[in-house]
Design brief:
alpha/beta; Rossmann fold; two-stranded antiparallel ribbon
Length: about 150
């Protein structure tokens, strides 16, 4: 009797910079993950509408919107996979709290990305699951007046 190979986890990478997206996708594929790629908000939304994903990695700024838009849409449509937020400019502590508490973001990484740190964060997020039950509830109950600035993400 042959043991079947484990099913690869599917990761959606939403990143507008083609070089960064290719490097992340290649590194994750070499680590054994199935990788879907998107370069815009609408492409990212279409990708998770068409397929089941286990993790999403989202850039903060995209040509047609922000990574926050992708995350909010993902959560509003009932998806519970963990999310890693990536940005070259994201340093505001208040923004970290909004992303993690209200939107269930599992991790936040700053660019330039270190491949080993990225992989460690992916593994951590997949092992720990997501915070989506609370995040999904918080989407409708976000009455704290705290909003994440979209400029400079």
């Amino acid at each position: 009797m042959h043991a079947s190979a484990p099913i690869a986890r599917t990761i959606l990478v939403v990143e507008d910079d083609r070089t960064t997206r290719l490097l992340v996708a290649t590194y994750l594929a070499q680590a054994g993950y199935q990788v879907l790629e998107a370069g815009r908000v609408r492409e990212g939304v279409a990708a998770f509408e068409d397929r089941s994903i286990d993790l999403m990695i989202v850039d903060g700024l995209l040509p047609d919107g922000t990574g926050m838009e992708v995350i909010r849409t993902f959560r509003e449509r009932g998806h519970s996979a963990p999310i890693i937020f990536v940005s070259a400019f994201f340093k505001a502590r208040q923004g970290h709290e909004v992303l993690s508490q209200q939107l269930g973001v599992s991790g936040i990484l700053e660019k330039p990305l270190d491949p080993d740190r990225l992989l460690a964060e992916v593994q951590k997020a997949l092992l720990s699951g997501s915070k989506t039950a609370d995040a999904t509830q918080n989407l409708g109950n976000a009455s704290s007046g705290v909003s994440l600035p979209t400029a400079g993400i």
